[in-house]
């Protein structure tokens, strides 16, 4: 398993040094304990506008991507995982387990 180093992909995490919203630790606890099992459930505990602002993303863009999370850039997911305090692969597994609105029904 390859460990992704933040410096290797050239992220500037200066915004993460600011005071973090306490709800991120709640989301981390809920993910670790298994209460959050899909990506969309994150936004039941913390508003999408707060997450968009903290990741440095435009709210409209972030909302559009959150509706189909497979379209997020890896860089955005790394930032979000660091905000929550969980491994990047955990965010990816939440996304891969989330039902997408754009999937075709067979």
Structure description:
- It is a single chain.
- The protein has 106 residues and is mainly α.
- The protein has one domain (21-97): Orthogonal Bundle (434 Repressor (Amino-terminal Domain)), CATH 1.10.260.
- The chain has 5 helices and no strands.
- The protein has helices at residues 23-32, 48-55, 59-67, 74-84, 88-97.
- α4 crosses α5 (88-97).
- The longest helix is centred in the last third of the chain and has 11 residues, at 74-84.
- The chain is globular.
- Give the uncertain stretches in residue-range form: none
**CATH topology description:** 434 Repressor (Amino-terminal Domain)
**Which class do the helix and strand fractions yield?**
mainly alpha
Distance between the termini: 34 Å
TL;DR of this structure?
It contains 5 helices and no strands. The chain is mainly alpha-helical.
Label this structure with key terms:
mainly alpha; single chain; 106 residues; 434 Repressor (Amino-terminal Domain); 0% strand
Write the layout of secondary structure elements.
Blueprint: H1 23-32, H2 48-55, H3 59-67, H4 74-84, H5 88-97
Helix pairs in contact: 4-5
């Amino acid at each position: 398993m390859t460990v992704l180093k933040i410096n290797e992909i050239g992220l500037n995490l200066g915004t993460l040094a600011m005071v973090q919203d306490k709800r991120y630790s709640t989301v981390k606890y809920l993910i670790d304990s298994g209460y959050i099992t899909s990506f969309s459930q994150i936004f039941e505990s913390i508003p999408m506008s707060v997450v968009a602002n903290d990741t440095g993303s435009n709210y409209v863009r972030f909302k559009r991507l959150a509706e189909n999370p497979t379209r997020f850039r890896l860089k955005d997911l790394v930032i979000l995982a660091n905000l929550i305090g969980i491994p990047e692969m955990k965010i990816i597994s939440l996304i891969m387990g989330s039902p997408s609105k754009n999937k075709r029904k067979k």
